[in-house]
């Protein structure tokens, strides 16, 4: 009886960390654009984000007794996760200059599909029918947050090169989540996040070179300092996601966090801006809420 009672309690840890990621990334998503609006470019915001990764990485590593997995396999997994995530962000910086964001982000938001397929095939992960329904609804809801009924799928004939770039970002982040789950089977979450931090810092010089310093850059308190306050939410949310993958199934964690984050962002943006979203966005919000509930019940 003791073992039966203890199991559900342990299983719920993935849900707590997933919800932590949803809240942190949701708040981050609602305010991350402020820095660029106030004259601090997105490339430098990336640099600030990479630096904010240091504090939580050092903190959790210290709590783990400074035990860092240093074998070749762990280093490969850790850097792969870090570089895939950071590399996808770097490609995104260029992608948004070549095409409309309202079409780019619906494509990128399908990254959990890559994670789900890889986890299903290679890790043989399965879930209940509630989980399957939650995954399906989450995948339907994700594009609705940015999709435009007026533009539809006109991008297929637009001739722009943003679409393959968006697919690259989607693939990077989908494969990153898969490796995050895979790495948790052989190394500590603290080591994973430490190498994620290293991967992010490795691309700081690239982001620096991408910055157009010929334009005025806000270096006041509402420039890099405000960016740091916002980006620390992203960093801690990423740490929470690592732990979510440690205790939960990637086939459930990926769609839950990717649907829940935009849900929180949309609600906060609605309250702050006092703007009523379109019918498609409202439908996406409802589906995301139902999907999140089903995925939670599937645990």
TrEMBL record:
Keywords: Membrane, Transmembrane, Transmembrane helix. The chain crosses the membrane at residues 14-31, 43-62, 74-96, 102-123, 130-149, 161-180, 192-211, 223-245, 252-276, 282-298. It is a multi-pass membrane protein. It is found in: Membrane. InterPro entries: AA-Vitamin_Transporters, EamA_dom, EmrE-like. Its main location: membrane. It comes from the Bacteria. Pfam families: EamA. Residues 13-142, 164-295 form the EamA domain. One of its GO terms (cellular component) is membrane. Belongs to the EamA transporter family. This is EamA domain-containing protein.
